[in-house]
Amino acid sequence: MRILLIGGNGFIGRRVAAILRERGHRVAVFHRGIAPLPPALEAIRGDRNHLSKSARDLERFAPEVVIDVVISSGAQAEELMNAFRGIAARVVMLSSMDVYRAVGITHGTEVGPLQGLPLAEDSELRHSLHPYPPEAMQMMRKIFTWATDDYDKIPAERVVMNDDALSGVVLRLPMVYGPGDPLHRFYPVVKRIADGRRQIIFSEPQAAWRSPRGFVGNVAAAIALAATDDRAAQRIYNICEEPPFSELEWARKIAEEMQWNGEFLVLPPERTPRHLVQPGNYAQHWAASSARIRHELGYAEPVALEEAIRQTIPWELENAPTVSSAQFDYAAEDAALAEV
Question: Which of 120, 237, 229, 230 is nearest to 170 (CA)?
């Protein structure tokens, strides 16, 4: 098959492209040309925010399937479908589990009772659009430069799934970790263990909080599967590992791999150092189900959980992010520990 990845030269996209190429597909990547592509991939240079300006180059490749890795808004989805209607047979958009009402409850943008779990593809979505406040979006765009000011996956999903002439697939991604993770999700625990901390503090609500996660190699495999399996047409799929572990359980798994024999302490929020208490309603968990993609497409993770953790830790140690010293205020943590 001829498969085009839009924005496919980043953390997730490069792995999707590699898997597709290994399976014999002809793969082109539409990107800005900031970083070089592996030689086996074809490059089409352009700007995702001005897709129509590259219409001739995209049409010349004549993709059968288009995977939009960096779609950000309903307006971008309109442009996407317009660009490939009559050319491609299917469009696959990478969405996020931030579409669910549960995410809005945690962030305080949704009212009402806690949302039931697990979050499945037919679970209630957010009623309020634009899930993140302006200051959070500003920070998000420093990391995910493709995100637009009007970021929201819900309008984009509606456009992609309701086109009469072009089939759509929506993949709702979890919190993705692994080598290359721009958010360095393992780093807070990895750094404290590497720094020789003997006790690591968690705030009680966050220690128990469960959210969907996925190793980047496994998420990429699921994307490649959905893009090339005709049974995925007009379907929405959650992609995530099961069972969902709590933040404390994840920390313990990291500690076990690093052979750390220290102690995790769970404290009430009022006794936890301020830099370790995140705002939000953590009574609302985000635990999700990926049963649909497993049952309908036969998806299973090619990389075991233990191996995924084993690959991630050394990358975190070798690629330490720039962080504020306030995020690792060991003096405040020691003071809290002294009161226990």
Answer: 237
